[in-house]
Amino acid sequence: MARGSDGGSGGRYPYCEVRSLAGRPAARPILLTVVSTEEEFDWCGPFDSRQREVGAAKRLPQAQVAFDALGVRPTYVIDHPIATTPSSAELLRAFVREGRCEVGAHLHPWVNPPLRELLGSEFSYPGNLPPELEREKLAVLVGAIEDSIGVRPRSYQAGRYGFGRSTAALLEELGFAVDLSCSSAFDFSADGGPDHSRVPSQPIWFGERREVLGVPITGAHVGFAGSWAAHLHRHASRPALQALRAPAVLARLRFSERLRLSPEGFDLAAMLRLTRSLRQRGTSVFALSLHSPSFHPGCTPYVRSEADLRRLFDTCGAYYRHFFDELGGRHLTASELYDELTAQPAEARA
């Protein structure tokens, strides 16, 4: 794809100089678990740079024990409050030292120095920041992670999936290997964010040198409409039809569902429908996502009680068992996937 045909042309595809992942599909499907590890904040309220509490991080050991029992090494992408609060940093530093996880970077601009932008929805997406400010913020975050965790992050996820025009070059400059910023099939443009609705779920190489691996959070349109499912959803999402709840009707009838591989807002049956559909299309790499505040009831809309938390862990466990036992899959961290793919002959990425 020629340079300039990225997100600048209507925001349809946020990466620069992209190429599809080359080589034969993995014989065994691969799963990543990406945990957006962040402060607690009001998901429905205004953005507030003072909301830096990380009390929910005390539940990380409970989650990590559950991951350990299932043979899962999550990729915790952590933001500035998590990295700079001694209690949360100490937990993650121990997990890394014990080889139980990977730690990457997660940029929430409104709580990440330097704070020079106007607070609001537009600049809550890091890719909307002026390029020099996006760079400063990410450099500060990288330094904080190195200081507190003792590793330089190789994986990155933009807060709110906010990959922008300058992000690709910035990731190359700062030496990141993997980007986890896209949420396939989802469109955030109504709120000022990027449009990922046409981003496929398979990983791609991108950047000037095609040396950064983009691994979208797995999502897709599935349903009886088959290849027309995405088109139906876009048509139903027009204002006039959305007012009639047309997308919900299509989903209820299973003609067109927009699904994400996550226990947050999606049940096990939906996650399995998504996985089966993408496997039939040849997808071999999957990325499951969730947020660390969901480990503490009351911090996200997805987990309001201890019963909700048990359901979240049960859903994850059931999905992992299906992926490993029924599909014969395996689990990797983001960097492990990158290292495995770069071990292929160089011409596989040409």
Fold and architecture overview:
This protein is an alpha/beta fold. It folds into 2 domains: 19-218 and 261-342, Alpha-Beta Barrel (TIM Barrel); 221-259, no CATH class. It contains 12 helices and 12 strands. Strands 1, 2, 3, 4, 5, 6, 7, 8, 11 and 12 form a 10-stranded mixed beta sheet that branches. The chain has a two-stranded antiparallel sheet with strand order 9-10. The two termini are 12 Å apart. The model is unreliable at 1-13 and 224-229 (pLDDT under 50).
Describe the secondary structure blueprint for this structure.
Blueprint (H helix, E strand, L loop, with lengths): L18 E2 L9 E8 L22 H10 L5 E4 L1 H5 L1 H12 L4 E6 L13 H4 L6 H19 L5 E4 L8 H7 L4 E2 L24 E3 L5 E3 L4 E4 L6 H8 L2 H4 L3 H7 L4 E4 L7 H13 L4 E7 L14 H21 L3 E2 L2 H9 L8
Parallel strand pairs: 2-3, 2-11, 2-12, 3-4, 4-5, 5-6, 6-8
Antiparallel strand pairs: 1-7, 7-8, 9-10
In short:
The protein has about 350 residues and is an alpha/beta fold.
List keywords for this structure.
350 residues, alpha/beta, TIM Barrel, 2 domains, 10-stranded mixed β-sheet, two-stranded antiparallel ribbon, 12 helices, 12 strands, 14% strand, disordered N terminus
* Shape category: globular
Poorly predicted tracts of residues? 1-13, 224-229
Please identify the structural class as seen in this structure: alpha/beta
Q: Give the tally of β-strands.
A: 12
The H-level CATH homologous superfamily of the largest domain, spelled out, is Glycoside hydrolase/deacetylase
What is the count of structural domains?
2
Mean pLDDT: 87
- Proper CATH architecture of the largest domain: Alpha-Beta Barrel
User: Number of helical runs?
Assistant: 12
CATH topology of the largest domain: TIM Barrel
Largest sheet: 10 strands, mixed
How much of the sequence is in beta strands?
Answer: 5-15%
- The level-1 CATH class of the largest domain: Alpha Beta
Amino- and carboxy-terminal Cα gap: 12 Å
Over the alpha carbons, how many angstroms does the gyration radius reach?
Answer: 19 Å
Q: What percentage of residues falls in helices of 4 or more residues?
A: 25-40%
